[in-house]
Structure to design on (432 residues):
């Protein structure tokens, strides 16, 4: 399956989550959520294996991969309040989880190899975290797959070649219109993977299963907020294409509305309201940070509220704007490090820069929630170009890829707050 166009809500601004890292905590939670479904919630034991030279061998505990994986196994989503206590909750429920460092072939630094034991079966799988909370399952029971959590997945494992055609006939006869259907083979048999935008009826799956005792079926529900489709049509994929096609016809936030509505198959109004909800979550996170945060396992204690106090007593950097932005960025980062709810924007490691700048500047400028939402959409448009052509994963591009991306996104948001256009930089250089 070819690479799908990036989504602002899937790849750039999101997920809504707890924990220190989107590529470790949030992504591992989504990996755990899918692993849980592979044994139809009948979990008994899971063994996770990390390559000694990958990023996870030394960071899986400190960056929260362990609590994310176990939280997902328990059915918790990345923002769930119980996520930080998932390890102790699993022990109370009798779910056995082991973490091992093992040398095996791994082509990505964020590789999760797992053995999932249900009450009556065992499944092996490999998944990777690709940055910013995004994931991909690469194989299940030695069958190659491409599962990223943005479809309903029906996995039909067939262990007799003669049955494959019968399965395909049932699918065709019942007018199932998959977005994608693929077949892969291993020494054990054939896997038919059907990707749809809706769950396939259980009765139909029973009809397929009743064809033979040599068929096993697994179904997975999406874990991403925006679903994909086979024929995704987007208006542009690069900044150059966007400017060539629209120039100053639309503001940057309007281009974000246009792009994400087409990409996600939702209205521009839904896109705007979705981003407005995210902005509200960001504002609440900043407020929580300013009230003081507590968490035992952290390097630095709460300091954001001290900046506001110091501003009242001492003359800090000239001008209220810079102090407000620094305070809000610090506040957001403290909430993240205390396992509070934040929005990865574009990652958890850089979650403070964008919202702290846009929300802080908006308050100083006395702008509305709608104005902040427009700024965040404009920022998301720039982040989308990065997601499409590069990466947010620190394990691939270094830690500064996160902060650099967040900073460039914040710059775009500030331009939008000032009613600037996508071509403002050209005008500033005397090239209208």
């Amino acid at each position: 399956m070819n690479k799908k166009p990036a989504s602002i809500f899937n790849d750039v601004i999101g997920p809504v989550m707890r924990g220190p890292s989107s590529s470790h905590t949030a992504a591992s939670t989504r990996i755990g959520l899918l692993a849980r479904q592979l044994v139809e919630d009948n979990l008994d034991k899971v063994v996770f294996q990390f390559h000694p030279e990958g990023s996870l061998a030394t960071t899986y505990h400190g960056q929260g991969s362990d609590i994310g994986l176990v939280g997902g196994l328990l059915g918790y989503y990345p923002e769930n309040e119980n996520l930080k206590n998932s390890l102790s909750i699993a022990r109370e429920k009798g779910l056995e989880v082991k973490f091992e460092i093992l040398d095996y072939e791994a082509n990505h630094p964020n590789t999760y190899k797992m053995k999932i034991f249900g009450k009556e079966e065992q499944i092996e799988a490999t998944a990777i975290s690709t940055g910013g909370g995004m994931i991909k399952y690469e194989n299940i029971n030695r069958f190659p797959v491409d599962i990223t959590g943005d479809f309903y997945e029906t996995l039909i494992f067939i262990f007799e070649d003669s049955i494959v055609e019968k399965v395909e006939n049932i699918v065709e006869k019942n007018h199932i219109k998959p977005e994608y259907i693929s077949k892969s083979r291993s020494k054990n048999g054939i896997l038919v993977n059907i990707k749809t935008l809706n769950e396939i009826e259980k009765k139909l799956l029973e009809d397929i299963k009743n064809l033979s005792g040599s068929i096993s079926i697994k179904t997975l529900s999406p874990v991403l907020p925006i679903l994909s489709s086979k024929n995704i049509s987007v208006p542009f994929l690069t900044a150059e294409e966007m400017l060539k096609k629209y120039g100053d016809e639309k503001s940057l936030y309007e281009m974000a509305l246009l792009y994400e509505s087409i990409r996600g198959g939702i209205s521009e109004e839904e896109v705007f309201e979705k981003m407005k909800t995210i902005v509200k979550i960001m504002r609440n996170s900043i407020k929580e940070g300013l009230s003081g945060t507590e968490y035992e396992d952290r390097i630095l204690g709460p300091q954001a509220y001290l900046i506001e106090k110091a501003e009242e007593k001492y003359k800090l950097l000239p001008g209220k704007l810079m102090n407000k932005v620094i305070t809000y960025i610090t506040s957001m980062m403290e909430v993240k490090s205390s396992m509070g709810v934040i929005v990865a924007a574009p990652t958890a490691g850089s979650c403070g820069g964008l919202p702290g700048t846009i929300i802080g500047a908006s308050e100083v400028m006395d702008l509305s929630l709608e104005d902040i939402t427009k700024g965040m959409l404009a920022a998301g448009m720039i982040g989308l170009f990065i997601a499409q052509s590069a990466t947010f994963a620190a394990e691939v591009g270094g830690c500064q890829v996160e902060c650099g991306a967040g900073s460039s996104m914040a710059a775009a948001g500030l331009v939008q707050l000032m009613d600037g256009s996508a071509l403002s930089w050209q005008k500033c250089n005397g090239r209208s």
Residues 428-432 have pLDDT under 50 and may be disordered. The longest helix spans residues 268-290. The chain has three domains: 18-150, 151-221, 239-428. The longest strand covers residues 122-131.
